[in-house]
Structure formats: structure tokens, C-alpha cells
Amino acid sequence: MSLGLIVVEVCERNLLASIPLEELEDQYPEIAVQRTPCLFMCHLCRAVPYAMVNSKRVYARTVNLCLHDIQEAAVKEINDFMGIK
Q1: Strand, helix or coil for residue 31
Q2: Which of 2, 38, 64, 79 is the one with CA 20 to 30 A from 25?
Q3: Residue 22 has what DSSP assignment?
Q4: How many CA atoms lie within 13 A of 76 on its CB side?
Q5: What are phi and psi of 77, to 5 degrees?
Q6: Cβ contact 18:43 at 8 Å
Q7: Angle at 26 between CA 22 and CA 28, to 5 degrees
Q8: pLDDT tens-digit profile of 66-83?
Q9: What gap in Å lies between CA 70 and CA 73, rounded to an integer?
Q10: Which phi and psi angles does 33 have, rounded to 5°?
Q11: Mind telling me which InterPro entries this protein's record contains (predicted)?
């Protein structure tokens, strides 16, 4: 079970939903992944893989790049929370 300090939200219709994002919860106990039917960003959703990380948009041209950017954003949020620079 994750702590949920970092919430990663993904639209079920986005390309990013095709990969096992819940593995992030195994790697980082602070992360909680939430899949939702719609995040109401349809133009972005149709165009590129994207997710919301603590209410901030993270997107990239490919699923792998987006996953990498999500991990970077999550680690930054964790470090900010813990006061690590």
C-alpha cells in the first residue's frame, strides 16, 4: 500500500494507461497511482501521453519518455517534501 504523498493521475483513454503504472507504487511507496475515466484535457490526451503528478501536467512525445518524466517529477516532489535539495 502506498503512502499517497505523490498522486499520479492518468486518464484511462490516454496512451499512458496501456502500461503498468502501478509499478511506480512498488518502486516509490510515496506514490499513489489513480486511473480515472477522464481528466478533462481531451486535446492533450489525444495528442501525447500525459499524467498529472500532484496536479501538475507531465507529458512527452512517447510513453517511455513520459514515464521517465513522471518519475523525475515524483522524485522532485518527494525531495521537496523531505527538504532535500
Answers
A1: strand
A2: 38
A3: T
A4: 10
A5: -60, -45
A6: no
A7: 100
A8: 999 999 999 999 899 888
A9: 5
A10: -95, 130
A11: DUF1450 (IPR009910)
Q: Which three cell numbers stand for residue 28?
A: 516509490
Instruction: List, in sequence order, the alpha helices (H) in 1-85.
Output: 23-27, 42-47, 63-82
pLDDT per residue over 19-64, tens digit each?
999 999 999 999 999 999 999 999 999 999 999 999 999 999 999 9
d(CA 32, CA 7): 5
The ranges assigned to domains in the chain are: 6-82
Q: What's the order of all strands across the beta sheet hosting 6-11?
A: 31-36, 6-11, 50-53, 56-59
Cβ neighbours of 82 (radius 10 Å): 9
C-alpha cell at 47: 495528442
What is the C-alpha separation between 52 and 73, in angstroms, rounded? 10
CB–CB of 33/16 below 8 Å? no
